Amino acid sequence: MRLQRPTFVFAAFVLASAAAFGVAGHFAATSFIRYQQAHQLDELTEVVLRRAEFAVDFAGASLGELARRDLADCGPATLQAIRLHVYQRSAIKDVRLVNPDGSVICSAYSETLEFDKGWIDRRDMLPSHDKNLSLFRVEQFGGDALGVLKDINGNAALVAILGVNASLFDIMPAELRAHSEVILALSNGEKLGEFLLDPDKALQAPIDLDKNSARFPLHATIRLERGILSTWNNEAYWPTLAVAFAIGALFGGLFARSRRMEGPVADLDRGLAANEFKPYYQPIFELKTGRIKGCEVLARWLLKDGSVVPPMNFIPLAESSGRIQVMTWQILRSALSDLQPLLKANKDFKLSLNVVPKHLLSAGFIETLRRTVMAAQVSARQIVIEVTERDELDDLARAAAVVSELRDCGFRVAIDDVGVGHSGLSRLKGLGANTIKIDKFFVDTITVDASTATIVEMLVALAKDLQMTVVAEGIETEEQVRALISSGVEEGQGYLVSAPLPFPRFNELVESRCLAQSAKLPTDAALVA
């Protein structure tokens, strides 16, 4: 019998590799923690700016709507219409008509003028980068507000007064919340709002993290006690060190087993050649009725042993290696084959497919999409292309042209991850999509954070102004459904109805829902009668 390699040699190699990684583990852990801290704090500062930008975009869109409706005078009927407009938008406290120099002509709610400590001249207002809006601080006795000015014509301009709610800046993690301060200011240093858990307690040896808006004259600052960072470090130190040891052991084991190691990209190629990537389907449903109106197609990797590889373990690699395009077409063809009977039987049913920006802008994308859908004998208007935001759309003009051509061909376009990705609201308008999908982050917090509900309401109002539909992602509870309906959202998807399913189980779900809806019809009709 042939002698096998002694197991103690393999074990010694693994231990030696783990020890080598462990020696450097402390330094690696420290560097990793510092990077994670900097990255997270940078993201939190970006969230402050993003929320402020949402509010300004919301005000600008509202003023634009008033201008289009020719509501820019001080007549009684006009002021009444403006008051109704303000009443329907809780974030806006007042709308005022001003002269070209910025002086107030009249106000929707004239009594609010009594709360102003002063009113600045037009020359002191700060223009945005696109010159369409100007921002300024409105000093009031009850707390400062933000003024957003939009020129209507050469003789007058409209100003929206936005209340600055301190709860909008309550974004810090629990362990940092009592040791930090979040500040929003204009670029000239005038403070608009802040959140500090205990205003009477001074921060000890604070450090500042600053960020400026690329679109508006807004400046966000997170002030943090230096000492709390060491505590934060200690919490993540040992897990990171354990990862370093694990990587060392894994590296040693893999290297010891084989001199020739095939990379994960080769596994992707084998999976594509064997058609192992399959579509899973998650229903999109009406929030009020639960009726399934469509589905989002999601990729899963089904291995020969029956195990399922989640997308986070292969999608980023597929994107970086250029395999995502082949995978996307393979998934779409399989999905069209599965769903063809349902799509032909129900012309209102929609199939949504994720496409990364690089694929959307690639040569021949639209023609390949048209041929694939035509070959399945399915209507183009039932196909929704969801533009994901793992990569930013660097060329917005080109992307808008592609979206326009897609819509001319009958396809619909949705923007995914709205609120946390790269899609500022001005980019949403410029892209010309049909639908926005509110990220799960907002759905998770809508029932516990009043500021989230305000942001969702602004997104819905803006979507309506842009004639777009809204879908909420990641719904898990009935309480979230009620909160989303109250905010104006009509459609959603999430584990409350179903996790992503293979086609046989998805088809059973759709059929059972249809039977349940049909069973309710006679009762409903009787109630109406």
TrEMBL record:
Coiled coil: none annotated. It is found in: Cell membrane. It is a multi-pass membrane protein. Residues 1-28 form the signal peptide. It catalyses: 3',3'-c-di-GMP + H2O = 5'-phosphoguanylyl(3'->5')guanosine + H(+). Residues 261-514 form the EAL domain. Its main location: membrane. SUPFAM superfamilies: EAL domain-like. SMART domains: EAL (SM00052). This is cyclic-guanylate-specific phosphodiesterase. It comes from Bradyrhizobium canariense.
